[in-house]
Amino acid sequence: MTDFRRLTGMFMAAVGLILSTPLASAQQPDRGDEPGLIADDAYQLDPEWQKQVVYFRTTEPPGTIIVSTAERHLYLVQPGGRAIRYGIGVGRDGFQWQGLVTITNKKEWPDWTPPPEMIQRQPYLPRFMAGGPGNPLGARAMYLGTTVYRIHGTNRPDTIGTKVSSGCFRLVNNDVADLYDRVPVGTKVVIRQKPEL
Amino acid sequence: MMRTFRGGLLIGLAVAVLVAVLAIIYEFYDTRTLKRTVRRGEVLCGVNKGLPGFSYSEDNKNWTGFDVDFCRAVAAAIFNDPGKAKFIPLDASERFKELQSRKVDILSRNSTWSMARELDYDLYFPAVAYYDGAGFMLPRSRNKETSLELDGSKVCVQAGTTTALNVADYFKANNMKYDEVKFNNLADVVKAYDTGKCDTFSADVSQLYALRLNLTKPGDHMILPDMISKEPLAPVVRQRDDDWMMIVKWTLYAMINAEELGVTSENIDEALKSKKPEVMRLVGTEGNYGEQLGLTKDWAVRIIRHVGNYGEMYERNIGEKSKLKIPRGMNQLWNAGGVQYAPPMR
Fold first, then answer.
1. Is the Cβ pair A58, B337 closer than 8 Å?
2. Closest CA to B202 of B190, B213, B191, B214
3. Distance between CA B251 and CA A7 in Å, rounded?
4. Report field, pTM of the whole predicted structure over 0.90
5. Is A55 on the interface with B (CB under 8 A)?
6. Which residue of A has its CA nearest to B144?
7. What are phi and psi of A74, to 5 degrees?
8. Is B338 on the interface with A (CB under 8 A)?
């Protein structure tokens, strides 16, 4: 099954890449979504983006996820004034948002159906891509409320700490799998953004 | 006729002399610090002789630190030049008297705000710059999560400090036992801890982070997140000097409000074009709060441009990217889990 999915994924990716080459070269280089690229999970993150337990003072109860867009950190609040902190990639300028949502669904090796608005902006993207190592959503996805946004893995670990996405929050595959196992559906997610001038 | 004229002249002269003398005395004893500071052309800042991250200098000329930067912010607000702050190192024992005798305009020197201090010395602490508290440092290998797990510990403290009293209260209140290992000199306490003569070391948390740098293996030691006392560190000014007190107070609040509004030293020019009312009031494109303070409309812009907002000042000197690496903790903004809260500027 997995092999089949993987193959499909690669095939789709290959088709996507071939189709997209002429278009993509005309576009700005897009570091965010690269269908078909296999994640290098041995990639070494800078210390700042590595998963770690930090002191974190908050009024939110343990178990809450707090995303700090400006800092590019995702905190999972723990008891005793601590939090597990992960490095994330966030939306590029104009694709950032804030608010309070809950995790409404969880998927392992999720399929990827880029939403229509994303296709419109990046027409070279595949219309559908089966889950697998070459999928930009990576190893896990957690759905945020009724939005099109997810907390998900990535096949581009080098984009952690940057703002490249279309509004999703991406973690390296090892981290997203770790977070996935710690949070149930219904988990409160607070997304904080720097105030605008 | 002649007599009356002479008498009148004498009276006139006497009045003139009296007025002149009174004017000289008034100028000499004029208590308004702002006026004296402006005339002198620099702010005299009383600082700590050496506390890494807060106030530190190798050569007594180039000062760095959180407390030092705050005084620079006051100088920037008045003179549009942070270099117009002059630093005068003061001992802990003398600091309040030196301020009282006008040797300095402002104390920006990790001083805990307490009721007794305001009353005893006739001073005023305008606003809390840094929320500190007594805490514990211990070797990571001891694997403790909170200070409630320290029952039966040997605790190193400096004798004669409030920390020793706080530790006593804390252990008693939580039904725990401990052995006190006391030294008069702080260096001796550090040495005793470093050589393993005690299980844990108690002092103000900011101090523990600074002292950790001097241990043989700083990375092997951690500071617990709990604080067992309240040590609000604040700048200090003299009482009955309201114009000056307002400038010091609102300099700090402008920096905190700037962080809350997302105004930084990097985007200050962008902020000047902002149409958001709160930002406009901060940068002086609306209202004339600066002039009411006795400064200029762009007083806050000067602070932010030269020194930055509260978060920038914190991160540069004591935050996670500095040598000290003190987590923001209680000094996080109120809307992000901390208690740093500035009244609105409207």
1. yes
2. B190
3. 63
4. no
5. yes
6. A80
7. -120, 125
8. yes
The answer to whether B106 and B43 are in contact (CB under 8 A) is yes
Q: Does A60 touch chain B (CB under 8 A)?
A: yes
With contacts defined as CB-CB under 8 Å, which chain B residues touch A56?
Answer: 327, 337
- Output the tens digit of pLDDT for each of chain A's 197 residues: 445 555 554 555 444 444 443 343 344 445 567 788 888 877 899 999 999 999 999 999 999 999 999 999 999 999 999 999 999 999 988 778 888 999 999 999 999 999 898 899 888 889 999 999 989 999 999 999 999 999 999 999 999 999 988 889 999 999 999 999 999 999 999 999 888 88
Q: Which residues of B15-48 are buried (b: 16+ CB within 10 A; e: fewer)?
A: eeeeeeeeeeeeeeeeeebbeebeeeebbbbbbb
Alpha carbons A5 and A3: distance in angstroms, whole number: 5
Which residue reads 């002086």 in tokens? B284
CA distance A162 to chain B (A): 18
Q: Which of B145, B271, B337 sits opposite A59 (nearest CB)?
A: B337
- Name the token pair of B20: 């002149």
Q: Would you state the structure tokens that stand for residue B305, as one six-digit string?
A: 């441009």
Q: How far is B48 from chain A (nearest CA, A)?
A: 28
Q: ipTM for the complex?
A: 0.81
Query: Is some CB atom of chain B closer than 8 A to the CB atom of A71?
Result: no
Q: What is the distance between the alpha carbons of residues A82 and B258, in angstroms, rounded to a whole number? A: 27
Interchain CB contact of A185 with B (< 8 Å): no
Joined tokens for residue B320: 């996670």
Q: Testing the interface with B: which of A50, A72, A190, A197 to mutate, by most B Cβ within 10 A?
A: A197
CB contacts < 8 A (A, B): 41
- In B99-252, the DSSP E strands lie at 106-112, 123-124, 130-132, 134-139, 153-158, 178-183, 200-204, 221-223, 231-238
Place of tokens 């004669």: B160
